[in-house]
Write a structure and sequence with these properties.
2 strands, 13 helices, mainly alpha, 1% strand, globular
């Protein structure tokens, strides 16, 4: 394992504390302004709750991100920060007034396409022609942004998922080197931890699209950077639960001819909630699975086939556990 610079730990600690403090202030401001997520037939909560906690999480995260990008001198991480800021602006407008699916998709492409052009290599490890590989990266990235938003449906789930993926990215970078390349993952984990103090069940605030969409963009970008650097196996293992739950649900809805862009409650974790499993119990299951996926991602650096098989079995077991109540 390569040495971990002390400044990374200091920046991450500052980001986590600032995210915790700012989210608390934003929660009170949202409550005073009555910017609330009110329960409806598709909700998993029963009490009006402030929505827009991403306004507290993102500024400290992006401040630390830009500082680290300055120290690292890496162009793509500046592009990631700019894209996240763009998506946060558009998503806040969507939280407040509602925007069409077309406008949201256009904003996502405007953030993803320039950043995808800066990836350090092909995500398909050279098996596809360059333009096709870039198009695949854009498609995967846009889908990841949306699935992150879709999966943010109960207290704590996106917080624990972001922490697990962020820590996994950091540890993988610490093994393959250089360790500071994984600092951005550590910042994600720290910001998610600060936010999670306010979002654990019963949540006092929700991320809102202003939080979940930029988080999906940043997380997906770091995973693609990892894959483009030749480490495709951990890039697939780390987010496998979110990928599986969201993608299987999407395919099921497509096969039934449903409008897949509309809100619903058909994800595996939502079905478990409707059948009586509590938010905290589900989030803890996702956290345990996330920790196991981190271990498997590290194992995939030496035995990718075995680690991928283990990750697939683990996620299948989690989906069965959540969906067996159907």
């Amino acid at each position: 394992m390569t040495p971990i610079p002390v400044y990374l730990l200091l920046i991450a600690a500052a980001v986590g504390l600032a995210a915790w403090f700012a989210t608390g202030r934003v929660t009170r401001w949202l409550a005073r302004r009555a910017i609330l997520d009110r329960p409806n037939a598709r909700s998993s909560h029963s009490v009006p709750t402030p929505r827009g906690g991403g306004l507290g999480l993102l500024p400290p995260l992006l401040a630390g991100w830009c500082l680290l990008a300055f120290l690292a001198g890496d162009t793509i991480h500046w592009a990631l920060a700019g894209g996240a800021a763009l998506l946060a602006t558009v998503s806040w407008a969507d939280d407040r007034r509602g925007l069409s699916a077309g406008i949201r998709l256009l904003a996502q492409c405007a953030a993803v396409v320039p950043a995808a052009a800066l990836l350090p290599g092909p995500i398909a490890q050279g098996w596809l022609p360059g333009p096709v590989d870039t198009a695949l990266a854009v498609l995967c990235w846009v889908w990841f942004v949306n699935l992150y938003n879709f999966m943010d449906g109960i207290d704590g789930i996106s917080g624990v998922e972001t922490m697990a993926i962020g820590l996994g990215l950091f540890l993988v970078a610490a093994v393959v080197g250089p360790a500071d390349a994984g600092g951005f993952g550590l910042l994600l984990a720290a910001a998610a931890m600060g936010f999670l103090a306010w979002n654990w069940h019963p949540a006092r605030v929700f991320l809102g699209d202003v939080g979940s969409v930029p988080l999906g963009f940043l997380t997906g970008g770091l995973l693609l950077v990892l894959a483009a650097g030749g480490h495709w196996a951990p890039a697939l293992v780390l987010p496998l639960y979110y990928l599986a739950d969201a993608t299987i649900t999407l395919v099921r809805r497509l096969l039934r001819g449903e409008a897949v862009w509309r809100a619903h409650r058909e994800h595996f974790y939502q079905e478990a909630t409707r059948q009586g499993l509590g938010h905290a119990a589900i989030a803890l299951r996702v956290a345990v699975a996330g920790a196991a996926l981190v271990a498997l991602a590290l194992a995939s650096l030496t035995t990718p086939g075995l680690a991928l098989a283990g990750a697939a079995a683990l996620v299948a077991a989690l989906l069965w556990e959540l969906g067996r109540r159907r």
